[in-house]
Fold these 2 entries.
Entry 1:
Amino acid sequence: MRTIAWEDGTVVTIDQTKLPNTIEFLSMKNCEEVSSAIKEMRLRGAPLIGVAAAYGLALTAYHSKAKEKEELLRELEGSSNLLRRTRPTAVNLFWAVNRVLKRAKDATGDVKALVKVVVSEAQKMAEEDVEINRRIGEHGSKLIENGDIILTHCNAGSLATVDYGTALGVIRTAWRQGKHIRVVATETRPALQGTRLTAFELKRDGIPVTLITDSTVGYAMSKGLVKKVFVGADRIVRDAVINKIGTYTIAVLAHEHGIPFYVAAPTSTFDLTHASKQITIEERSSKEVTNIGSQRIAPEGVDVLNPAFDIAPIKYVSAIISETGVLSTTEFEKLTLNR
Ligand code: MRU
């Protein structure tokens, strides 16, 4: 089932804050609603955020009363700025907004033609995302053998994309090929994407999964309970992979235990123009740490540090799997130099 869809001027998605207990659909009629959904993590995951942003611009175009092209372009610029302020780390958001804006600016014809261009570009990006994930799955599944126990972090599944998933797409493909595998899913504090979303997706597909707390990773690896790691990414810069908080710890532990650490991400997640120290790591509300659900656990007034992502230096990465194939880090670094 698709995570996001365009239905004649409305964008429909699953409210991920309610999963897995309630499957509630969210209908968004304008870019402000899309921006809020991204900010509040009702929809999340780098590729999905990108496609949602493109759809946000499609909503602006579709419902616009602009009579002149210039007026509509100004409205699209306004919506783009709103989207850019939602979450700073996943590069797919900026990539998607820039791609749609460029398409809009290059479009010829009248306002009606421009609306059509923007809406169809967003739809094209959604279709492409599904196809890209399938290809990532095909390439990455070659790295999986019978008997593998694969650790994954956060949720890089169909809920983080339009459909299928990146890291979970690889696992899904291997499973469909008949490989006997097991997954170890980390809970992923503080928003619990592993507990609520990854475990939900894997159970739904019948793929064996064991849920662990984030702090169990070292124990599980030291006991030989993990053979490979597959994670997604929010941004892959020249020197590092930026992904959900906890990824760096997992990468270092994998290195210590001689466990391959693979990153699966579309090329739209590559940001070859930046190095990790130039990237803004999103800091989220302290409530995510002081509370469990609506219940406060921490004492009032305690200081909290709550970065949503961390930075795993490229030296810890065994390979990067994208829609173009499996890249060694040397190949990735060459890609960087060629730009
Ligand atoms: O804060 P989130 O839930 O948006 O973070 C998501 C992740 O960190 C994923 O691993 C990443 O976006 C890749 S999803 C295919």
Entry 2:
Amino acid sequence: MSTTSAGLKLDADVTAFLSESLQKAFVNGQWVEASGGQTFDVVDPGTGGKIATVTSLQKDDVDAAVNAADAAFKAGTWSRMPVSERSAVMHRIADAVEQRLSQFAQLESLDCGKVYNQAEGDIQGFIDTFRYFADLAQTLDYRNVIAVKNHEAWVKRHAWGPCGFIIPWNFPFLLAGWGLGPALAAGNTCVLKPAEDTPLSMLYLCHMIQDLDLLPPGVLNIVTGIGETAGAAVAGNSLFRRMSFTGSPEVGRLVAEVCGRNLVPVKCELGGKGAALVFDDVDIPETAQKLVEAITFHSGQVCCDATRWLVQKDIYDSFVDECITRMKSVNIGYQLDEGTQMGPVVSNKQRERVLGYLEKGTAEGAELVLDGGAADVAGRDGYFVKPALFAGALSNVAAREEIFGPVAFLAPFESESEGVSLANDTEYGLGNSVWSSDLARCARVAEAFESGNGWINAHNVIVHGVPYAGVGKSGMGGGVVSPDTLNDYLRPISVVRPL
Ligand code: NAD
């Protein structure tokens, strides 16, 4: 065991991994450096201290990784492996991650500032996702006969080829699992670019895969680097047969544009500005508690979070008081310390963004009913912020734009129809929730949301088997962790013979 700069014990294997002077990218089963020697630093958001130097791949380096994925696909060792064998490998990867769950969780917590037990949940989510798709892949019919008059016809499904993934920093390991799980289970080969803030857990995974000889070379390639360089090179490589981008709408547009030019099918899982519609028949303390837990979970850096809390007029004042009391008592601390409920945000840039929205929202006339602002955590020089609550007109910038921090915006409504129309009055459409003891009303309202997901008396509910995706500025062509996702990674070919 060793210690972090903040004095916490880390597993010896994690310490050994972090003691490498340079973290290299994983391409074609080898550890590679950027051709020009470029690097970038990764910091612990809880201390601001450097924890790794990582190779920063350039366009040619990324292109080499895509070529390797293409060659590995064509070689067929993975893509033509019998489904049952491929599924067994997926299970072996899941089992191996599970045996190292605490190591992965420590690294994830350290790298993105996620509270340790939340990081454990993410790692478990990756494991469950690999198992889900490994099992699902074995139940599919890869050849479906179609009954048509005077013809013999069937549809055969193959893997597509090399698939590209660009992912953000808020759930680095889990989102990688949501992407890689279905793509690999279907027999594709993958090139994944982690966010520059949080590349470590993916590299640790590749060490494990290499040590245990779990995948043939070139099947999984991790290209570390900066968005504008390595990310743009992934987005622009026309050898890909599928592209998956998760991140901000601004970068999503760039990726979709270049994929459009290359005619590479792309799915975009983007941001959100979710609403929680709270009716006057709720249990006020219980509902306030659940929403406070949601907005402080991973310091509010959750795309589908409830960031607009719309509360029926009769209970508005008491609901707001209850929320303020609970938000004030959230224990802000170092992410690996026991008892911490909310850790830092991922970077100084992200903290500046959150603090900037507190200023911009106030300047446009919203009231901060709970101030928020930078938080001091004794002995840690990290990027901590306090939870904040705005109240005011929903035309305010803080009610319309994604802040990505522990900040919610309150507004009252009177009737059900007014509440639904306020919830839907946004460019985003990822996850909204309805809170009421009248379940018929809940079902009606949830179905009326113009979003990919409608949740009842809960928020951020993501269950294997149920499609999760966004509409509008929250994404296009997306969807994860359901049978549809696996089908996305299979190329259908119709075969027809006139009789
Ligand atoms: P971001 O868009 O800045 O970055 C995402 C990824 O894109 C990173 O890997 C980055 O390096 C890369 N990138 C940056 N510029 C690029 C370019 N020009 N070309 C190609 N790639 C480039 O997003 P972020 O700040 O890392 O993450 C936060 C955003 O992600 C929020 O908007 C959040 O809502 C969204 N998100 C959505 C989902 C979902 O499932 N819908 C899940 C998690 C996060």
